[in-house]
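Whiteboard transcription, Tuesday session. T.W. wrote the structure tokens on the left side:
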């Protein structure tokens, strides 16, 4: 296991990234923590320490109480509306550009719904859990940007009379099939895999870490805390992604 406290070890990961052509990156809430967006499962500070996911982030909760669920997601949106990408998002976007310029690629598979990878400059993001910036009519399937949703009452409704809900993946819902396929392709063809800022407990997303490990490619975890995957990855860099990723980029270029 690699610790950020050991500079020669971060150097080794920088070398892996330097030599890689295709990199797959799975990101989670920790990636946006330094942008001021709350994570879910961190004790005390995580959303699930104050809110019950089964009452707010489960498909049955939406069916039972669309008012409460859509109000909560509108509040969640208000928290990410002003958020800016942090140095971690920007470093990942630079890494993607660097690899693309050299004929390779960095596939970013995110569980985040905040759109910050895109604002930070990364391209072709695979949004495994959807986006809070799009809302969808439950009656017609029509999508619309959140700025076109009328939140004067809850749940918001479309002209067709359907409930408008965020285009995100709640517990008990399937992930978008095109995102699943793109993620699997990226993991099956990468020569280095990074998992950044995720507790690695929500499936099927966490399964991509297992898949990369089973392929035998180098796997790197970036997280200030240990996760259930820490003992299984090739290298665990302990630290916030907003510090570790820029440092990796700096060392890659030296
Ligand atoms: C930092 C940091 C810094 C802090 N720098 N790091 C197999 C086994 C068991 C259960 C299942 C299974 N397969 C499926 C399930 C059920 C379920 C599931 O996984 N449950 C487990 C939790 C027990 N999965 C599902 O229901 C999924 N659907 C599905 O499987 O469908 C199948 C189906 C088939 C047929 C018909 C119907 C269905 C859907 C999962 C959807 C998850 N949705 C949520 C809410 C989305 C919207 C929202 O944002 O509210 O997605 S839940 C929540 O968890 C959110 C996140 O994307 C997801 C993952 O969380 P994440 O990102 O890892 O955050 P945290 O808080 O857990 O961790 C943050 C990490 O960051 C920590 O490690 C920190 O240390 C670290 N950190 N600061 C770097 N600065």
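and on the right, the sequence the group agreed on:
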């Amino acid at each position: 296991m690699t610790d950020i406290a050991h500079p020669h070890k971060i150097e080794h990961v920088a070398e892996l990234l330097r030599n890689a052509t295709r990199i797959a990156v799975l990101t989670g809430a920790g990636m946006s923590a330094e942008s001021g967006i709350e994570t879910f499962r961190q004790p005390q500070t995580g959303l699930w320490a104050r809110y019950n996911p089964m009452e707010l982030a489960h498909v049955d909760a939406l069916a039972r109480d669309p008012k409460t669920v859509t109000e909560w997601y509108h509040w969640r949106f208000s928290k990410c509306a002003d958020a800016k990408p942090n140095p971690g998002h920007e470093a990942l976007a630079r890494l993607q550009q660097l690899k693309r310029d050299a004929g390779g690629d960095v596939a970013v598979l995110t569980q985040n719904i905040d759109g910050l990878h895109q604002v930070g400059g990364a391209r072709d993001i695979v949004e495994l859990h959807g986006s809070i910036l799009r809302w969808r009519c439950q009656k017609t399937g029509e999508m619309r940007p959140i700025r076109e949703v009328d939140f004067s009452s809850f749940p918001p409704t479309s002209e067709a009379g359907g409930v408008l809900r965020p285009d995100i993946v709640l517990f008990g819902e399937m992930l978008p099939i095109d995102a699943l396929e793109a993620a699997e392709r990226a993991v099956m063809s990468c020569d280095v895999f990074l998992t950044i800022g995720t507790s690695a407990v929500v499936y099927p997303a966490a399964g991509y870490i297992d898949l990369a490990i089973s392929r035998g490619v180098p796997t790197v975890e970036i997280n200030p805390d240990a996760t259930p995957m820490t003992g299984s990855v090739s290298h665990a860099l302990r630290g916030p992604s907003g510090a570790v990723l820029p440092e990796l980029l700096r060392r890659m270029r030296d």
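Someone added at the bottom: The pocket of BJW is lined by residues 28-30, 33-34, 39-42, 46, 57, 111, 113, 129, 168-174, 197-199, 201-204, 223-225, 227, 240-242 (CB under 6 Å).
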